[in-house]
Design goal:
Largest sheet: 12 strands, antiparallel
Number of helices: 1
Structural class: mainly beta
Order of helices and strands: EEHEEEEEEEEEEEE
Strand content: over 45%
């Protein structure tokens, strides 16, 4: 018998001949009902509203997602190099949140740009990240109960189990440099 979630990816051959994971077309299309969301808290140096925010040493907390969702956004990291990203399970004071953090440097224990999952300052997971020359990142996140997969620029998939993600707020953050989060959209499965 099966005792867990199954995550599938579509593999696409890029012009360099390498295979990269992308969101399967059927999964992408299935999340078609737009969801209204709002920022419920800002902290630190934050400007913007609605679907675009500029964050520097700060965070924006959004309301809870009550079902499986797809979150899409663009991140402009021209003025950021590490310690920015998206966090889940951001209830109360956000101390128990799980942070998916971009590190565009090679100044980490793996010696390469990476995505990291941190909880309470402890590294739980990582995957190598291909740094875009223009430092622009197209991000799509699929959330199903306690599993989330983050797709970045059609060349990275980062899947994690996050136990307190369900029914809790999520947030965007930047602790070093300035990160711009634009065109934030959330959609869910139709009824």
């Amino acid at each position: 018998s099966w005792g867990g979630m199954l995550v599938t990816h579509k593999l696409v051959q890029q012009t360099d001949g390498k295979l990269y994971p992308v969101i399967p077309d059927a999964v992408d299309a299935k999340f078609s009902k737009e969801v209204t969301y709002k920022d419920i808290k800002t902290d630190g140096n934050v400007s913007g509203n609605s679907d675009s925010f500029t964050v520097s040493n700060g965070k924006v907390v959004f309301n809870r997602n009550a079902s499986s969702v797809k979150i899409q956004l663009k991140i402009d990291a021209v003025q950021a190099t590490k310690d920015f990203g998206i966090a889940f399970g951001a209830h109360n004071n956000q101390a128990d949140a799980y942070h998916i953090t971009f590190d565009l440097t090679s100044d980490n224990r793996y010696g390469q740009p990476s995505l990291f999952l941190y909880h309470k300052g402890k590294e739980l997971n990582f995957t190598p990240l291909i740094v875009a020359g223009n430092k622009q990142y197209e991000v799509t996140i699929i959330i199903e109960r306690q599993v989330c997969t983050m797709y970045v620029n059609d060349n990275v998939a980062f899947t994690n189990h996050i136990s307190n993600m369900e029914q809790n707020p999520w947030m965007i953050f930047s602790n070093e440099g300035i990160a711009k989060f634009n065109n934030i959209k959330i959609s869910r499965l139709p009824n």
